[in-house]
Amino acid sequence: MLDASADPAYGACVVAVGADRDGIEGLARAERAQVPTFVEKLRDHPTRAVWDEALAARIAEYKPDLVVSAGFMKILGAPTLEAYPVLNTHPALLPSFPGAHGVRDALAHGVRVTGCTVMLADAGVDTGPIVAQETVKVLDSDDEATLHERIKTVERELLVDIVGRMAREGWTVHGRTVIIGGARD
Ligand SMILES: Nc1nc2c(c(=O)[nH]1)N[C@@H](CN(C=O)c1ccc(C(=O)N[C@@H](CCC(=O)O)C(=O)O)cc1)CN2
Ligand SMILES: NCC(=O)N[C@@H]1O[C@H](COP(=O)([O-])[O-])[C@@H](O)[C@H]1O
Prior knowledge:
This protein is α/β, with parallel strands linked by helices. The protein has 5 helices and 8 strands, in the order βαβαβαβαββαββ. The chain has helices spanning 25-32, 48-60, 78-81, 102-109, 144-169, and strands at residues 17-19, 37-39, 67-70, 86-90, 113-120, 130-137, 171-174, 177-180. The mean pLDDT is 96. Bound molecules: ligand LMY7XDAE and glycinamide ribonucleotide (GAR). Its EC number is 2.1.2.2. It catalyses: N(1)-(5-phospho-beta-D-ribosyl)glycinamide + (6R)-10-formyltetrahydrofolate = N(2)-formyl-N(1)-(5-phospho-beta-D-ribosyl)glycinamide + (6S)-5,6,7,8-tetrahydrofolate + H(+). Belongs to the GART family.
């Protein structure tokens, strides 16, 4: 996304990169690009609710139009969800295999095709309206790591494309579906 946003025609820029823990490659990548970063750790707060509020306050410092969750492994609470649209990427074809272990669960189930889903987060876990999906074939030789790496290649490209289109064209939510721009494909 940082690379794509170097082109003014992309229509979006990364105003900050945040995480709930240190040592994240995305933080280092942002720092190399002189993009502001922040870390808000759950363990630094007395309760989950206080962390939720603190995270939303950190995000508010950057006034984003859209929050993108990519590999953010915490369920976001109401303070963030009620303040911003949150786009999430999940390494499975929702509603199948939601949660923190989508690739592991899909492989264990024996699926021959899996993929990734870009959706708007809601209060549930991977239950929000779907923006886009792409499929990835499962190879007989796959283990969780090899399959997940192939999914990541597809989902990163999809996420960058979707964020740019949403920024340029806007979006509307119709029940469980998100339409980018003014009309259905
Ligand atoms: N309100 C929402 N927040 C988030 C969603 C969402 O759909 N609604 N998606 C997640 C990303 N995600 C799957 O795509 C996901 C991430 C993490 C978990 C989870 O069980 N997290 C545990 C802690 C895990 C850990 O710390 O290692 C937790 O939050 O207690 C489920 C799904 C992003 N946020
Ligand atoms: N349920 C949330 C979830 O599984 N998120 C997944 O974590 C990976 C992060 O990869 P990265 O750390 O290499 O960017 C991505 O595949 C993302 O979809």
